[in-house]
Structure formats: C-alpha cells, structure tokens
Amino acid sequence: MSTTILAGIVLIGGFFLLMMIKVPVTFSMLISTFLSMLLVPGTNPTTIIRMMFDGVSNFTMLAIPFFIVMGEIMAVGEISDKIVDLANLAVGRFRGGLAYVNCLDSMFFGGISGSAVADVSSLGSVVIPMMEKQGYDREFTVGLTVTTACQGVLIPPSHNMVIYALAAGGGVSIGQLFYAGFAPGIFLGVGFMVMCFILGRPSKYNFPKGEKMFKDEKVRWLGKDESGKFRVGPCLKVVGNAILPMFTLVIIMVGTGVGIFTATESSAIACFYTFILTYFIFRKAKVRDFGKVIKNSLKTLAVVLTLIASAKAFAYMMTMLRIPEGITSALIGVTANPYILLIIINLLLLVLGCFMDMAPLIMIMTPILLPVVESSAFTNALGPMSRIHFGIVLIFNLAIGLCTPPVGSALFVGCAVGKTTLENTSKKMLPLFAVMLFCLLVVTYVPYIFQMSLFGY
Predict the structure, then answer these.
(1) How many other CB atoms are found less than 10 A from the CB of residue 346?
(2) What is the pTM of this model?
(3) Which SS3 state, helix, strand or coil, does residue 219 take?
(4) pLDDT of 204-230, one tens digit each?
C-alpha cells in the first residue's frame, strides 16, 4: 500500500471514526488532517496552519459576522411578531390558516435572517403556541415549523451561500447565488402550502378555520370588528410594521444586484439598518443591552469560523492526496448516465447532511463534487451544469439535513421550543419530507426553476 493511499485512509477513515465516537466536528477534521499529514513526506505543518488562516481571512467572509449580528438583533427586536402578523393578514383566515401562516412567515423571515435555526427559535416561539391553541397537533406543528425554516437557507441572504462561493474557488458571484435562491425557496414554500391544503381537509387532519388576525380580540379577519364594520387602520398598521423589516431584503438584493455595493458591504449596511430599526424605531430593546447581542453573536461566529478554518485544512489535504480526482473517477465509473449520477450525488449529500453540520460539509464536498458535474463526460451527456446551479442543489440538500435526525440542528431547536420528542415529531414530518425531496428533484433536473431568479441579472 502506497503512502498516499494510507494517508487518504487515515484522513477520511479517521475523520468518520472520530465522528462516531462523538468527537466534535472541528476537532475530528483537525486531528485526521494532521495525522494524515505526518504520513506524507515533505509536508510542512505551517502550510496547514496557513491554509486555516487563509480560509477565514478573506474579505468576503466579513459578510458572515454581519449576517449573524443582524439575526441576533432581529431576535431581541421581536421582528418575528411583525412577520407573523403580516402572514396572518394574508392567509390566516382560510381553513388551516395558521398552517399557511407558518409557511409564509418562514418565507418572509428567511428573506431577512437567512438562518433556519433563527427561524425556528424566533418564529416557532410565536406560531407553535398559536397553532396548538387552535387545536393543531403539536408534533405536526413543530414538524411544519422546522421544515419550513429550511426556506431561510435558500432565500437570501444566506451566509451559507457566502461559504459556498469561497469553497468553489472563484467563478461564483455571491450576488448571483442570492438571486438564484429566490425561486427554489418560494417553490419549496408553495409546495408546503399545497401539502397543508391536502392534509387540512376534513377527511385528514381537519385543520380548524382561522379566527382572529391580531392580538386585539375585537379585530377579526380583513380588518372587520365584531359588528362587521370594516376597519382598515389595523391592517395598514400590520403592513407598515412588516414593511420596515422586509426592507432589509431590499437593501441586500437591490444593492448587490444593481452593483451599488458588494455582498459584504450590503450585509454591513443591512446590519446597521436593523440596529436602527430595533433600538430607535420599534424600541423593543435597550441599547445598553447590546453587549448581550454581541456576546451571543461571537459565540455563533466562533463556531462557524473554526469549522470553516478546519474544513479548509481538511480540503487542502484532500486535494494534496488527489482524493477529489479519485472520487470523480469512481462516480463516473459507476455509471455514464448523468441523471443517475445526480441521484447518487443527492443521496450522498442527504446522508451526510444527517450526520454533519452545514458549513463544514459545504467546504468539504464542494471541491469533491464540483469537478464531477464539470467533467466532460457529465456535461457532454446532460449539458453544462453551472456552478450557480450546483451551489443551489448542494445547499438545498444540506438544508434538508438541518431537519433530519440525528444531527439536525433545526429539528433539535424545534423540539425544544415545542416541547415534543424527536421520534414523534419525525413521524409527523414524513409528508413534509416528501415535499422537500420532490422540490429538490425538480430544482436538480429543471434548471429553469433557479434560472427564473436570475432573469435580467
């Protein structure tokens, strides 16, 4: 056995072995990387250290802390309440109205925070008690909240798209990635609504009809009070309160799309706008408590950046051992059919997403799988698959992993917020998983779904 093969076995096998004995992902990658490095003659440890620093010292990476701080500010500013009220106003009056509200508010909130976990923790604490009070099954309610939160990873802004752009190594515009996520995210949200309509029929779960729109018990749907008199004022107030937070998305998308500023600059401006909105316009939090927001943001940021740094070193060692080339040849050797290859890639990502966090998987799998879809055998048979398209497919797969056991972070947070068990909630999520898989296949094989977002970019 050659030294290269042995080092590759130590790198990949050691990583999964350490994961199985519950060593944290960051340390699993670092330990396996340095052990495999010792087996390769002439490898300098300082090179690995330099790669780790290079992985987190990119200017584009500054967008990530700004997005994280923005999400924390929104949490203390009770932005989720305003988003829920807007969704309530739009679809809450129908049978199963709160189920539709759950889908729609995740779509709105995902377009502001870009985080599935933030979506579950913020919106879940508002919507789950509301749905349970109206008679919805608790496990289904939690499951719906968790799965709809995955829209937040697809609908921009999303710091995971920034990570993918860096892992792809060039040729990927973050602005284009942001735009490309719109149509798939909305398509997924509509799919959830259709499933809620099917499940909400009297012959199925028999979802209750919507009753009230606001916390004010005298105001009912469409602004009518108990006497039947139409009141437009409360409706306009709900729209006005929600438009200001939604303008954050406008700052990011219009700014990057028109070319006024970069993704990093737009994230900084959007973060500052959210700060003004929370502390000086809505006044739902006090400026003197801003230190807690920074502290929570630093905790999250430390986890994200150490994962990225470790994954960068791990990916460098894989490249040095020519593992991506070997996997590319092996996958293409299994079948020459590109449609089956895409199914294999999706299955691989779905399985890995059940066991690993999103950020390190993006850093590890991008350099492995991107050469596969860019290989001549693949493109000649199916047509060229752009890096933007592959990025959306990759992120979609890993977003599903956020709500699948045993390591789905969004699922764990949802069960904690809704006070349900992992097993019972997962069973009620099966129809919703079917929706996600169907939408994933459509986005994979029908590029027009994501290209709709890029029209006129």
Answers:
(1) 19
(2) 0.77
(3) strand
(4) 767 776 655 444 444 444 445 555 554
Are the CB atoms for 227 and 240 separated by under 8 Å?
no
For the record, the structure tokens of 453 come out as: 């977002």
- Each residue's pLDDT tens digit, 60-113: 677 778 888 887 887 787 777 777 777 777 766 677 778 888 888 788 776 666
What separation in angstroms does the CA of 392 have from each of 210, 275, 342, 389, 449?
Answer: 35, 30, 13, 5, 11
Q: Give, to the nearest 10 degrees, the angle between helix 338-353 and helix 430-445.
A: 140
Residue 222 lies in a domain: yes
Q: Which two tokens stand for residue 120?
A: 């579950």
Q: Determine the angle formed by the axes of helices 45-56 and 25-38, rounding to 10 degrees.
A: 150
**Spatial contact of 108 and 83, defined as CB atoms under 8 Å apart:** yes
What confidence score (pLDDT) does residue 219 get? 42
Q: Distances from the Cα of 275 to the Cαs of 60, 67, 159, in angstroms?
A: 21, 12, 19
What is the model's pLDDT at position 213? 46
Tokens of residue 443, six digits: 């986005």
CA 263 to chain centre: 17
Distance (Å, whole) CA 104 – CA 100: 6
The span from the CA of 156 to the CA of 383, in Å, is 27
What range does the domain containing 208 cover? 58-454
Cα separation, 406 vs 374, in Å, equals 32
Flag whether 134 is in a domain: yes
Question: What totals of helices (H) and strands (E) does the chain contain, helices first?
Answer: 24, 0
CA distance 70 to 269: 10
* Distant-in-sequence, close-in-space partners of 61: CB < 8 Å, separation ≥ 6: 162, 166, 305, 308
In the block, residue with structure tokens 């495999």: 36
**Contact of 191 with 438, CB cutoff 8 Å:** yes
SS3 220: strand
- Taking the CB of residue 347, how many other CB atoms lie within 10 A of it? 11
Cα–Cα distance for residue pair 317/327, rounded to 1 Å: 14
Q: Distance (Å, rounded) from C-alpha 346 to C-alpha 418? A: 30
Whether 42 is in a domain gets the answer no
Q: Is 232 exposed, middle or buried (0-12, 13-18, 19+ CB in 10 A)?
A: exposed
Residues in the chain, total: 457
Residue 207 is classified by DSSP as P
Phi, psi of 13 (to 5 degrees): -65, -40
Distance of CA 232 to the CA centre of its chain: 36
Q: Phi and psi dihedrals of 215, rounded to 5?
A: -70, -25
**Residue 3 domain-assigned?**
no
Count of domains forming the chain: 1
